[in-house]
Every structure is written in structure tokens, then in C-alpha cells.
């Protein structure tokens, strides 16, 4: 039992006693009864004075007492003694005040415990029984005119004993269960406190800034990381609008994820990533907003550095590839011209060398114009086009140019398809994909060109029955100058990719080594 609870109960007991005695006093004046036939009317007043004094003494002592349990016990035992004396002076068996003993049994169960209830019940039984016995055998100067027989005395004592013990039992039972409930409640309370402590600790230790606001955007919670990121103290933030700490927000804050610039106090700015969502109570009612934010400045800086490095690495690789592509034809050109310069060659040889020189120059020129197409593309001329007629034209040209007997072109078109695109550029893409398919299949195979009209895009698929693309190559086929062919430039797919990207579309490849290769062009309507 908590000491505080015991003290307040003892105080209540003292107050109750004082009230009871006062009522008794009032009653004796009000009714002017000669104290219920008491032989000692003066004694009653005297008795009341003693009880009052005791009450005053108790109140004075309560501040100094160390063992409150003993203090309570003493009071209760003194109460029993006082009551027995009072019963004695008000007529013993004829006294109306035997019920005060029951009150004391009740009090001891409530103030101390179940056991004290039984102790006080036993004490009351013994003293009351003794008093009545002494009265019966006329060893005390108290008469008993009305009740005379021994049986009646015994019955009275018996009834009182039963009353004392049943009171002790019932009050003990009730106070015990009350105590249990109180203890449980206290335990719950301490759990709640632990939980609250845990919550605030966790929130404070979070590495991300966290705030909550009411529905109007006034700050309720502002954790340590939030202070560090914004440079604003919790004391200044709480109660004020969240826009004081995070000026880029609107009031009330809008849900969603943002990346914003926080003007810092010093000359540097901070990039802040923030997510805001509704805060709801356990009934699902909106009570405000919660925001979590991080300082992304460092990460963004690293990211920019990485991109910069990657860009330079790509430029380096590209330059090396260009140099390589130019050097090869130049080398054979140089060789041919050197031999021609010597001049003593037969006519037949000279012509051959001239042819080689010319075709190498042609190759060089083609590579450079391809590269220019890739690197500095012409402006798009978007118009509404009939996709199938553009496809047909390109495929006819392809069939004539390649003239491979063993290869068939199968068309699998879906209805009529109009899209917005640059027809010249698109036929360049179809051409590049078609040429690749023909080159991959060699002497025989089938190129299937199919179209599909989806709700918000059109898909054109080039599917061939060639050898497919090796897994190790598939990530690189769209890089400029990547080629697995002896005379390839490695620019066909790079250009196609670039054109489709300019159309805000996508070019994707699906290929399985040895089976087939499909390129899907996905264009928005
Ligand atoms: P190039 O045709 O000059 O080699 P591309 O950019 O057109 O350059 O193609 C790059 C590489 O992608 C080719 O060398 C080839 O290895 C691979 N490739 C492209 N299309 C196909 C295909 N239909 N089947 C198999 N491999 C392909
Ligand atoms: Mg090609």
C-alpha cells in the first residue's frame, strides 16, 4: 500500500471521527435528552471533550509520525476503548451506541487492511462481551431494567459478534478488491508513462527532422533533428506557424513529397526533402499534419559530382571511339596513297588502290555524317501521319536494297493507325532496325513487323528470327560505336534510340540468344 494513500486515509478517519463526535454533541444539545437514561450525563460531556482533544492531538502528530500503520492501529484501538466506555456510560446492554463499534471495524478494514478489520472485530467482541458479562453479573454499577434474562444477554452478545465479523469480512473483501483495482490502474498508469517516455525519446533521437501541427499548421511537436536542420529552437517553433521554420510550405501544409531549398541563416542554402501527410486520431478524424524531412544538401552535392564524373567518362569513351573509327579508314587511305605515289605500279593495281582509297573516304564520310545525325539532330517536324504507309514505304526500300531472297517480311498491322511524329526521322528508325534484322539473319529468316494500337500509345515491333543478342552485349547495344560487326559503325541503334527519345517515346529490346530479337517502339498518340 502506498504510504501517501495510507496518510490520506488516516486523515479522513480523523476528520470522520471529529464529525461524528460533533454530531453526537449537537444531538445531545438538540434533543436535550438526559442521555438516553444514562446514569452519568456529565460523564458524556467529559467524554466528548476527551475525544475532541484526542482528535486534535492526532492532527498535530500526523506530521511527525514515522510508522503510519502503527499510528492508524493505535487510533482504532483507542476508538474501540472509547466506544466501549461510551456504551458503558450509556447503559451497557441498553445503550444505543453499540453500532459505533461496527463503524470502527469498517474503518479499520478500509484504512488499514482486511486483517486489521478482523483484529478490531475480535477486540470489539471481547470487550463488548466482557462489558455485558460484567453488567449481567452486576459487577458494574449499571442497571438493566428492561432486559433481564441470561438468554437475552447471550443473544445480544452473539448478535454483536456476528455483526462485527461479518462487517470485517465484507469490508475486507471490498477494500481488498478496491486495492487490487487501484494497483492495476497504477500499473497501467506507469506503463503509459513508460510508453510516453519511449515515444518522446524515439522522436527526439530520430535522425530525420519531424514536426506535427494542428489543422491550421501551428507546430505541436518539433524534434531535435528539426532544430538542427532549420536552425530554429524548439521553443521558438512550437505554437507558431510551421512556415516560420520552413518558409517554402503553404498554410495549411499540402500533403505530398517535395524537395525544396531552405534559405539558411548563413550564406549557404540547404536542400530539404520533405514528406507531409495527414495526422489522424484513433477515430480517423483529421487532427493536423505530420512532416518528416531530411537535409539532402550533402547527398545532392555527391550526386552532382558523380554525374559530372560520369559525363566526363562518357565523353572520354566517345572521343576514343571516334578517333578509332577515323583512324582505321585513314590508315588504309594512307597506305593506298603511298603505294600510288611510288608510281611504278601496273594500271590494274593502280585502279584497285584508287577504288580502295575512294571507298575508305566514302566510309569515313558516312561515319561522320552518321555521327553528326546522332550528335546534332535536326529539329523535329511533327505532323499527323499514317503510320502504316510510312512503314510500308521504308520496308519496300529495304527489300529492294538488301535483295536477300531467303528473307521474307511479314506485316501484322492493326487497323488504321495515325500518330503524331516526324515521318523522315521515324523512317530512319525503321530503316536502322530493318537493316540490323537483315544483317543479323544473313541469308534466310523472317522479319515480322507488327503494330498495336493501345489506349494511350502505339507499339511498333520489329521481330527477327536471327541469332539474338548475347546477354553481355544487351546493355551496350544503344551506346554509340558499339558494334559486333566488322564493318559496322555502331551508330544505327544509338541514332534510333535518340530519335525515339526525342518523340518522348521508348525503344526497348527483348532478345534471347539463339531464338529471336524484338525491338519495340512505343510512341504516344
Ligand atoms: P551496327 O549495326 O553498325 O553494328 P547498331 O547500333 O545498328 O550498329 O547495332 C549495334 C549492335 O547491336 C550490332 O553490332 C549487333 O551486335 C546488335 N544488334 C542490333 N540489332 C540486332 C538484331 N536484330 N539481332 C542481333 N543483334 C543485333
Ligand atoms: Mg546497324
Description:
- The chain is α+β, with helices and mostly antiparallel strands.
- It contains 15 helices and twelve strands.
- The protein has helices at 3-30, 41-61, 68-89, 99-111, 114-136, 150-205, 224-230, 234-237, 242-245, 297-342, 347-375, 387-402, 423-441, 471-474, 492-502, and strands spanning 209-214, 219-222, 256-263, 269-280, 286-295, 383-386, 407-412, 418-421, 445-453, 457-464, 506-512, 516-524.
- The strands form three sheets. It has a five-stranded antiparallel sheet. It has a five-stranded mixed sheet with strand order 7-9-10-12-11. Strands 6-8 form a two-stranded antiparallel ribbon.
- A hairpin with a 5-residue loop joins strand 3 and strand 4 (269-280).
- Helix 3 (68-89) packs antiparallel against helix 4, helix 5 (114-136) runs antiparallel to helix 6 and helix 10 runs antiparallel to helix 11.
- The protein is rod-shaped, with a radius of gyration of 53 Å.
- The chain starts with a helix and ends with a strand.
- The mean pLDDT is 88.
- It binds adenosine-5'-diphosphate (ADP) and magnesium ion (MG).
- The site of magnesium ion has 4 residues, from helix 13.
- Magnesium ion binds next to helix 13.
Amino acid at each position: 500500500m502506498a504510504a501517501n494513500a495510507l496518510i490520506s486515509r488516516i486523515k479522513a478517519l480523523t476528520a470522520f471521527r471529529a464529525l461524528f463526535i460533533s454530531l453526537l454533541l449537537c444531538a445531545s444539545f438538540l434533543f436535550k435528552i438526559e442521555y438516553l437514561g444514562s446514569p452519568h450525563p456529565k460523564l458524556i460531556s467529559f467524554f466528548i471533550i476527551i475525544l475532541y482533544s484526542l482528535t486534535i492531538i492526532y492532527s498535530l502528530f500526523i506530521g511527525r509520525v514515522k510508522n503510519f500503520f502503527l499510528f492508524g492501529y493505535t487510533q482504532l484501538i483507542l476508538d474501540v476503548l472509547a466506544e466501549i466506555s461510551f456504551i458503558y456510560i450509556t447503559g451497557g446492554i441498553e445503550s444505543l451506541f453499540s453500532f459505533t463499534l461496527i463503524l470502527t471495524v469498517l474503518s479499520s478494514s478500509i484504512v488499514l487492511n482486511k486483517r486489521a478489520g478482523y483484529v478490531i472485530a475480535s477486540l470489539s467482541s471481547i470487550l463488548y462481551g466482557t462489558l455485558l458479562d460484567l453488567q449481567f453479573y452486576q459487577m458494574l454499577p449499571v442497571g438493566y431494567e428492561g432486559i433481564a434474562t441470561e438468554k437475552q444477554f447471550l443473544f445480544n452478545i452473539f448478535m454483536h459478534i456476528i455483526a462485527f465479523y461479518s462487517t470485517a469480512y465484507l469490508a475486507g473483501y471490498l477494500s481488498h478488491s478496491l486495492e487490487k483495482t487501484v494497483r492495476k490502474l497504477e500499473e497501467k498508469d506507469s506503463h503509459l508513462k513508460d510508453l510516453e517516455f519511449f515515444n518522446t525519446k524515439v522522436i527526439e533521437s530520430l535522425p530525420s527532422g519531424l514536426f506535427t501541427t494542428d489543422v491550421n499548421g501551428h507546430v505541436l511537436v518539433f524534434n531535435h533533428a528539426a532544430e538542427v536542420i532549420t536552425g530554429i529552437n524548439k521553443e521558438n517553433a512550437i505554437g507558431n506557424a510551421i512556415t516560420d521554420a520552413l518558409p517554402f510550405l503553404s498554410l495549411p501544409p499540402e500533403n505530398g513529397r517535395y524537395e525544396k531549398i531552405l534559405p539558411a541563416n548563413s550564406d549557404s542554402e540547404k536542400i530539404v526533402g520533405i514528406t507531409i501527410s495527414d495526422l489522424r486520431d484513433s477515430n480517423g478524424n483529421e487532427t493536423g499534419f505530420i512532416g518528416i524531412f531530411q537535409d539532402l544538401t550533402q547527398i545532392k552535392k555527391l550526386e552532382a559530382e558523380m554525374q559530372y564524373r560520369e559525363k566526363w567518362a562518357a565523353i572520354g569513351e566517345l572521343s576514343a571511339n571516334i578517333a578509332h573509327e577515323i583512324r582505321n579508314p585513314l590508315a588504309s587511305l594512307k597506305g593506298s596513297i603511298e603505294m600510288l605515289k611510288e608510281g611504278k605500279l601496273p594500271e590494274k593495281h593502280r585502279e584497285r588502290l584508287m577504288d580502295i582509297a575512294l571507298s575508305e573516304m566514302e566510309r569515313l564520310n558516312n561515319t561522320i555524317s552518321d555521327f553528326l545525325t546522332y550528335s546534332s539532330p535536326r529539329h523535329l517536324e511533327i505532323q499527323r501521319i499514317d503510320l502504316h504507309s510510312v512503314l510500308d514505304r521504308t520496308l519496300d526500300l529495304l527489300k529492294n536494297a538488301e535483295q536477300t531472297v531467303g528473307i521474307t517480311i511479314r506485316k501484322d498491322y492493326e487497323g488504321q493507325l495515325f500518330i503524331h511524329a516526324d515521318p523522315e526521322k521515324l523512317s530512319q528508325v525503321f530503316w536502322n532496325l530493318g537493316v540490323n534484322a537483315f544483317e543479323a539473319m544473313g541469308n534466310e529468316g523472317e522479319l515480322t513487323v507488327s503494330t498495336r494500337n493501345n489506349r494511350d500509345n502505339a507499339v511498333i515491333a520489329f521481330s527477327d528470327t536471327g541469332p539474338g543478342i548475347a546477354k553481355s552485349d544487351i546493355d551496350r547495344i544503344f551506346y554509340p560505336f558499339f558494334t559486333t560487326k566488322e564493318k559496322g559503325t555502331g551508330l544505327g541503334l544509338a541514332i534510333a534510340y535518340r530519335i525515339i527519345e526525342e518523340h518522348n517515346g521508348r525503344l526497348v529490346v527483348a532478345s534471347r540468344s539463339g531464338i529471336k530479337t524484338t525491338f519495340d517502339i512505343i510512341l504516344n498518340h
